[in-house]
Amino acid sequence: MRHVRAFGLVGLAAFALAAVAYAQSTPPATASTGHDPNAYAELDKTHWGDAKAGAAKAGACAACHGLDGNSTANPALYPRIAGQSERYIAKQLALFKSGLRTDGNAALMIPYANALSPQDMRDLGAYFQTQHSGAGVADDSAIASGPYAGKKLYQVGEQLYRQGDRSRGIVACTACHGPDGAGNPGPAYPHIGGQQSWYAEMRLNEYRGGQAALKDDKLWGLMALETKNLSDEEIKGLSTYLQGLHNRADQASPADVAAAKQAAATATPTPSATPQPSKAN
Ligand code: HEC
Ligand code: HEC
To answer: Measured from the CB, is residue 238 less than 6 Å from ligand 2?
Structure first.
């Protein structure tokens, strides 16, 4: 059983790498140009996503988002989707396919969403939810003037993230997105820890500007209220803080850390760290 599983993963990796190479030369055959205005409503007819089925479809996403949802191809263009919740991913894919989400670089994304069935969207969501999100580094340059003079840029975000600002109706972001930005899949509050700062900044500006994809969307409305009174500097501070926010330390239990240390101490040094896929067969 273990062998079968290991083989399955190697097979998937090989498939995805092939997909990357292919996507870089020609647009993959899975891309489609047709919108479906009903795509968003059709999500109601689906069931919870199947991560295994999603893994088999994720090769189409790898060229841009990375096989595990941590984009390496061009992090300045493609958001991180690793660790994002199943429902949030499915919702965004359905919005792209419905023609309701056209912001930023959505034109690059839309043909891939158009090619998906509503259940594919949930399966892909379930797969990426199981992947671990990486993180970047927060900007610690000092602010020269203005209300935050003397603070570092990320500290402006850290304070708002942890404490909010009651006098301006800004709820601490931790209340919904959690202390490490992992979100809450139940009510579909997205995972935001480790997201590229430019992407978080773009989204926060959209919420503040009222560019709702769905004008009556309750969840969108929560963020529109939250961002209404944020200044540009505060949005930048929050975005860079998010880029550095991650949960890896929290996820490793003391037992995990001890086991990893012991494994490292007893490991026999090998001349090359390259994985040997043939051993998995
Ligand atoms: C050709 C590159 C490309 C491919 C292939 C691609 N995407 Fe994207 N994706 C993007 C870009 C660019 C964005 C950001 C759009 C924007 O600026 O709003 C995006 C955004 C997203 C988002 C929204 C993330 C968020 O937090 O709001 C999701 C979810 C997503 N993609 C999932 C997928 C899945 C699943 C696949 C495979 C079926 C896929 N993408 C294939 C380029 C791509
Ligand atoms: C009351 C709950 C709530 C609070 C408080 C809140 N958020 Fe959100 N946030 C949400 C929900 C819900 C969404 C998804 C909206 C949607 O579905 O369009 C979201 C979306 C986002 C996104 C976009 C994620 C993506 O990948 O597209 C970012 C970035 C974000 N929030 C950052 C913040 C920051 C920073 C704060 C604090 C200043 C904050 N949020 C406070 C509920 C909340």
So the answer is: yes
Q: How far, in Å, is the centroid of ligand 2 from the Cα of 91?
A: 14
Q: Which residue carries 């909010």 as its tokens?
A: 164
* Contact by Cβ (8 Å): 164, 170: yes
Name the DSSP class of 143: P
Map out the domains of the chain with their CATH numbers.
2-129 (1.10.760.10), 153-248 (1.10.760.10)
Q: 22 or 261: whose pLDDT is higher?
A: 261
pLDDT value, residue 263: 57
Nearest CA to ligand 1 atom 40: 61
CB 158 within 8 A of CB 118: no
What are the E-state strand segments in 44-196? none
Cα–Cα nearest to 170, from 218, 210, 222 = 222
Six-digit token string for 211: 């560019």
Enter the tokens of residue 62: 């790898």
* Mutational test site, ligand 2, from 192, 223, 229, 233, max ligand atoms within 8 Å of CB: 223
What separation in angstroms does the CA of 205 have from each of 43, 189, 236, 250?
27, 18, 10, 30
- pLDDT of 270: 37
Q: How far apart are CA 29 and CA 99, in angstroms?
A: 20
For residue 97 the two structure tokens come to: 């396919």
pLDDT in tens, 116-154: 999 999 999 999 999 999 888 899 999 999 999 999 999
What is the pTM (predicted TM-score) of this model?
0.83
Q: Is 112 in the pocket of ligand 1 (CB under 6 A)?
A: yes
Residue type, 106: A
**150 dihedral zone (left: phi>0; alpha: psi -120 to 50; beta):** left
